Amino acid sequence: MTRPITLEEIDERLRSLDESLLVGPEDSRALGRIIELHIPAAPTQQRAPVRANRRWVVRLGAIAATIAIAILLNVVAAYYAPTYGRALADAPGVGGPSSTVLATFGLNTRQLTAVNDSATASGHTLRLAAGYADGLRTVLFVSIDGKGLDGNPKGYGMSPGDYGLGDFSLSDQFGHAYVPSGVGSPNWIPFTPLAWPASRVGARLTLHVTSIDALWLRGTGEIHGDWILHATLVAEPARTLALPAPVRVPQATYTFTSIRSSATTLVIRWTIDGPALDRVNELWAAGGNRTDPNVPPPPPTAEERQLERDYFSPQVFDASGRQMQLSMSGITFTRPATGEITVFIPGPGRYRIRLGDALAADDLQRWIVVP
Questions:
Q1: Reduced to 3 states, what is the DSSP secondary structure of residue 324?
Q2: In CATH, what number does 89-233 get?
Q3: What is the spatial distance between Cα 130 and Cα 172, in angstroms, rounded to a whole number?
Q4: Which of 41, 159, 206, 371 shows a CA-CA span of 20 to 30 A to 359?
Q5: Nearest CA among 323, 304, 305 for reference residue 315
Q6: H/E element, 14
Q7: The dihedral sign for the CA sequence 159, 191, 123, 148
Q8: What is the CATH number of domain 239-370?
């Protein structure tokens, strides 16, 4: 019985091919297998030509095809597995996001993939300037009529001509859809991380925008159109790290449940239980109705604020004591409560976790190592 070929083997074989080599049966089988595995999930309009290419490759590979078919194989393989043609994604672009915009995501220009793909409709030009992907997030940077990726990010949207994306969708070459996730803006948007198999072989993303918003008009300036933009991104890997020991004090017990890292991001999750949680929930309940969206919630009491600072305010520091830039942080006050913090990191190293101001003693903080 023939051993099933794995996606890692497919990726390795495709990347190791050279245009001067003949296409043998194993190379044909690799390409045939990757199409067989993934074409059912691909967009309908792509299916017919890919099936035709597959027939040619399998037939000609069996008779030791010439270099012309090797080039054909390279082209098709590079479409379905962009890691094979990664140099295409590294071509320099023009007018990418400013360092101020990138700093919002803890990124720098060296970590970006330049894209520079544009589309014009309804009198407006959208340009997908650059992107970034790792195992924890996917980020796209889009300018509209040349604006939105430079200057003061906090002031964008206040002046006439400041447009942002309205309705849009994002999908990869295998038909998987991605949704916004995290803190961004109408022009630089974080999405969920690349899904398998694109997370392994690279993603050819299609951003389909159907409306843009005149931000300075505060919701009254929607413009409809049809803009289709493309990007090729290869994700940097994410790792699951070993969990530190729980943190225990008389007022609370903290148990780490998940820690994941990439080259730029660290995500930490934990649970909380104990008297401090009980007291916060009591104060919350005593504060009146906080679930009706039509009724403004009362401000937290001084005791609530102190409890949250002492036991529910996580921070992450590097080995030199510098606090890491916060992306998101939150506590869900269930029983037990669940906490999560996402910070941007400069790279591998040792990082220190402090879960609250009352937990600043050395033995109450936890160290982790990002490889």
A1: coil
A2: 2.60.40
A3: 16
A4: 371
A5: 323
A6: helix 7-16
A7: positive
A8: 2.60.40
CB 102 within 8 A of CB 109: yes
Give the CA radius of gyration of the chain.
Answer: 25
pLDDT tens, position by position, 146-196 = 999 987 777 888 899 999 999 999 999 999 999 998 888 889 999 999 999
Can you spell out the DSSP letters for 15-58?
HH--TTS-B-HHHHHHHHHHHHHHGGGS-HHHHHHHHHHHHHHH
Quick check: 14 and 31 in contact, CB under 8 A? yes
Q: Beta strand 239-240 with 252-261: parallel, antiparallel or unpaired?
A: antiparallel
pLDDT digits (tens, 9 = 90+) for 199-251: 999 999 999 999 999 999 987 889 999 999 999 999 988 999 999 999 999 99
Tokens of 158: 């206040």
Neighbours of 148 (CB within 10 A): 27
**Which of 310, 305, 315, 323 is closest to 359 using CA atoms?**
310
Q: Which residue has the tokens 């994002």?
A: 170
Buried b (16+ CB within 10 A) or exposed e, 161-197: ebbbbbebebbbbbebebeeebebbbbbbbbbbbbeb
Domain map of the chain by residue range?
Answer: 7-80, 89-233, 239-370
Structure tokens at 196: 């398998």
Residue identified by tokens 């002492």 is: 310
Burial of 216 (0-12, 13-18, 19+ CB in 10 A): middle
Task: Please check whether residue 116 is in contact with residue 93, taking contact to mean a CB–CB distance below 8 angstroms.
Answer: yes
- Give the DSSP letter of residue 75: H
